[in-house]
Fold this sequence. Notes:
The protein has 469 residues and is of the alpha/beta class. The chain contains 18 helices and twelve strands. It folds into three domains: 4-71, no CATH class; 82-278, Rossmann fold (3-Layer(aba) Sandwich); 302-463, Alpha Horseshoe (Serine Threonine Protein Phosphatase 5, Tetratricopeptide repeat), CATH 1.25.40. The model is unreliable at 286-331 (pLDDT under 50). S-adenosylmethionine (SAM) is lined by residues 19-21, 72-76, 80, 114-116, 120, 146-148, 151, 201-203, 223-225, 254.
Amino acid sequence: MTDPVQDYTRLGDLIRQRTGLALENNRHVDVARLGERLLEELNLPNLHSLITQLDAQPTGAPLWQAVVDAVAVGETYFFRNQAHFNALRFHVLPALVNQRRASGQKQLRLWSAGCASGEEPYSLAILLRELIPDIDTWYISILGTDIDMDRLGVARRGCYGRSAFRNETPPDVREAWFTPCEKGYQIGDAVRRMVIFNSLNLVEDTYPSIATGTMHLDIIVCRNVTIYFDTPTIQRVVNNFHQALMPEGWLIVGHSEPLAANYQNFIVRNFENAVFYQKQPLDIASLFVSPAPTLSEAPPTPLARSVPARLAARPPDRRTAHPAPPPASKLNFSIAEAALQRAKQAADREDWDEAQRCLAEAGQAEALLPQVQYLRALIEMHAGRPQNAITALQRAVAHSPHFALGHYWLGELYVTRGERRAAARHWRLAAQSIANLPSDQPVLFADDLTVEMLRGLLALRLGTLPASS
Ligand SMILES: C[S@@+](CC[C@H](N)C(=O)[O-])C[C@H]1O[C@@H](n2cnc3c(N)ncnc32)[C@H](O)[C@@H]1O
């Protein structure tokens, strides 16, 4: 005979481990009653056998779905929390849309994590349709995920009863975006097509990843989901969200989500009755970490012989794959390298004139050409001059044909001009350049991007293009 108190504790622990849902925080759930109900429904002899079966099965299995159904709260409705939607409508989205338009990159990626029956991601889709008149010329991806498959089924069907529309739901939304149907209101196809639903357990480390479509996001909305999670789990989830976001991307959590301390990696942004968390901007210097002029992704070129003694004397690491060349033009190189550092610092201060002056100086050392052109391209992209960025990157890849990040950005720049073939060509060249590198190696000039992440990103970007590109 096992001790029933111990069994209930083990059941609670197992549910917390697998779903993040801590039952003691989940006051509406009585573990004893939940256990009894499951035993009856599943026709099992005792708690011990229930626990053994649960332990042996993946969280997506029907047995676990019965548990999730009993434990998770799926309450949601369209445009829940007006203050959040106002902050998005009047501040966050207009700025983001304008910025993307100016840079010629008409794309947005949003994720509603813990979307229940889909009202939240559909509200985001409706909001974007209302805000962007030429939305059909944009690349917009909205992902809705949840652990509860039944609710995801409702979301995919897109048919809602009256309770999905409450006081906070703008009154014209139902008429504008739904048609009456037998069971209530059917969401229109234009909105439905904008959202993809997938099951994803936030407690499992399957994100950020290409496979789950959870990388390089502009906005993550995760509201009223982590309220029942314990603190270490929340910190892990929030940390994963941070990695999944683009620089300056937004994390939006619910009003009752605990402890601001969990979001300390983010900048706190206050709006009327709403607090959002924003990831730090791109630090150009951090994108540009390796001063080594020999590109590990490139074959040795005669120009690489001007590596200075200081760098050449370093023990060989995974980035500098080629033998150290003699210190032929040490003095010139040192001066140019110092100018490059000044250019990076000026770019970080957003002093673009000074950055350009220093770059011109640094550009005199030919071995630094890829670095100089890459930094120039980043500055030009920032300034909204995509053509100049393309010219700079073309020079960088002409000098170092295996410069993966250079090809990657060329792909991004071409695709936003509608030049899909050119984009596909550069993304393929980027993929070839890193094909034989170890997965966990940082990509040259981008310490926080590994080869594996870039591979995934390239697969995703190539997947957005027609096969004929
Ligand atoms: C209250 S609903 C929130 C819906 C919507 N975000 C909103 O605020 O209106 C909470 C959702 O979180 C989901 N959830 C709970 N634990 C989860 C987990 N570990 N992974 C993914 N989703 C989870 C539940 O299934 C439920 O559908």
